[in-house]
Write a structure and sequence with these properties.
single chain; OB fold (Dihydrolipoamide Acetyltransferase, E2P); eight-stranded mixed sheet
């Protein structure tokens, strides 16, 4: 019998013993009046004499994380959502019967403890138990050295254990929730209405990406998990809501990496009578506000690199970024043949009929993207890669669009919206030709959306912000899996005999 099986056997023996003693293994009749943090915050600085003068009993509950037995007494460590506190269990205080039951408790069990407070000789605030009860028996033992696990996939697959054993992981997700609340409050203070749009759509639109496909039996039709909420949110602008935002999931049938998960969270918002330049200012204001709330500073370390969010942030066009971070010359970026040759010289695959705009963006992603460590707005994207963006007034081959990069990662994508229905139809037709040529990520022709534009959409700017990547930045997390509670994982290989 291996060690794990032996531990399970001993636990099950304790369970049967407790049952024979009439102990309820999973009761639900306690009232908790405090958390570990609330008790420590109020009384942690008091000495023992002051604590003796407090005529108050404290009832806490949590998970047993450590037990140190000393015969007729024991010290325990109890962990709840806020932290840990020490408990002192003395046989003379809780009674012989309760103490004999307590002796069958294991690390990992959920317990209830109530009593007064004292300070030990080492100065640790401690709950002196008058009562300790089992709330939920742990059948399986906790991992002994979870902190030292090198198999990060085990942490992602068993997030419940990761959260129990690693307080830093729990802090990441509390910070994530706080960031989302800060963003939501920011938007609502600016008169944006929070809305919800369909997760299942009859046509996958609003982005250039491959969708997940499903089927609705009752309606007898194919549906797609949305790749973006964009086209529905812009219908709301047509309808007169003028300022809308949504924080929710998108789904893209793409690869998994440190910055990509097939299911991810974005905030997408649209503002009538605004331009992409207005959104540059708004984005700076939003992200710096979050930084000040999280760090109390606009400067912080991310993966051993100092990030400085002091405004204004750098602005570069796509072409300027290429010229700044490569040996490319302006003439190369003006000629499709030269651009294709340059791209191929770097080992990039280029189709014979690849348009110049797409080649330029591919070169940008290869030579410049990773160099954009400090916050940078990259503007003037070619029309070929921006099917929903408004053409630039000065050059119709480019669009009024920006992407925000920090630490070499795209965090946001925004543009002045295309609201000319005829131009939009032509853009969809361009995408359709790409689709027919084999590009499965190209946009389909969306007649219903064009019909909505024909009722007149006001001049509008819109933006999508990757919440997961923003949380990565503000929690110093190297992988997107570290900020998603249950990231998608490859199926486990079945063991063979």
């Amino acid at each position: 019998m291996n060690e794990k099986s032996e531990l399970l056997r001993k636990r099950k023996e304790k369970i049967e013993s407790l049952r024979s003693m009439g102990v309820e293994l999973y009761p639900n009749d306690v009232s908790v009046t405090a958390t570990t943090k609330s008790v420590i915050d109020r009384f942690g600085d008091m000495d023992n004499e002051d604590l003796k003068g407090i005529d108050e009993k404290f009832a806490l509950a949590g998970r047993l994380m450590a037990i140190r037995n000393f015969g007729k007494a024991a010290f325990v460590s109890i962990q709840d959502r806020d932290g840990r506190i020490q408990g002192y269990i003395a046989r003379d205080k809780v009674g012989i019967d309760r103490y004999s039951i307590f002796k069958k408790f294991d690390v990992g069990d959920m317990v209830f403890i109530s009593g007064s407070l004292l300070k030990t000789k080492t100065g640790e605030l401690t709950v002196e138990a008058e009562e300790i009860r089992l709330l939920s028996k742990s059948v399986r033992p906790l991992p002994e050295k979870w902190h030292g696990l090198t198999d990060v996939e085990a942490r992602y697959r068993q997030r419940h254990l990761d959260l129990i054993m690693n307080p830093a992981v729990k802090k990441v997700f509390y910070t994530r929730s706080r960031i989302i609340k800060l963003i939501r409050d920011f938007m609502q203070k600016r008169d944006f209405l929070e809305v919800e749009t369909p997760m299942m759509q009859s046509m996958a639109g609003g982005a250039v990406a491959r969708p997940f496909k499903t089927y609705h039996n009752a309606l007898d039709m194919d549906l797609y998990l949305r790749i973006a909420p964009e086209l529905y949110l812009k219908r709301l602008i047509v309808g007169g809501l003028e300022r809308v935002f949504e924080i929710n999931r998108n789904f893209r049938n793409e690869g998994i990496s440190t910055s990509h998960n097939p299911e991810f969270t974005m905030m997408e918002f649209y503002q009538a009578y605004a331009t992409y330049e207005d959104l540059i200012v708004m984005t700076e204001e939003m992200i710096t506000l979050v930084a000040m709330e999280v760090f109390g500073s606009l400067s912080f370390d991310y993966q051993d690199t100092e990030i400085d969010l002091s405004r204004p942030w750098q602005r570069l066009t796509v072409k300027e970024a290429i010229l700044k971070y490569s040996d490319t010359t302006p003439d190369i970026l003006e000629d499709r043949v030269k651009a294709a040759q340059y791209a191929r010289s770097m080992g990039m695959p280029v189709e014979d009929d690849e348009p110049l705009g797409k080649i330029i963006v591919a070169i940008f992603e290869e030579v410049a993207e990773s160099k954009l460590v400090q916050p940078t707005f990259v503007t003037s994207y070619p029309i070929e890669v921006s099917p929903l963006s408004r053409k630039s007034a000065g050059n119709s081959e480019f669009t009024d669009r920006f992407e925000l990069y920090i630490y070499g990662r795209e965090l946001a994508n925004a543009f002045s919206e295309l609201n000319d229905p005829e131009d939009q139809r032509n853009r969809f037709a361009m995408q359709l030709r790409e689709r027919e040529a084999g590009n499965e990520e190209a946009h389909e022709m969306d007649e219903d959306y064009i019909g909505a534009l024909e009722y007149s959409m006001p001049p509008t700017a819109g933006e999508g912000i990757g919440i997961d990547r923003l949380v990565m930045l503000f929690t110093n997390s190297p992988s997107i899996r570290d900020v998603i509670l249950f990231p998608h994982m490859r199926a486990k290989m079945k063991a063979t005999t």
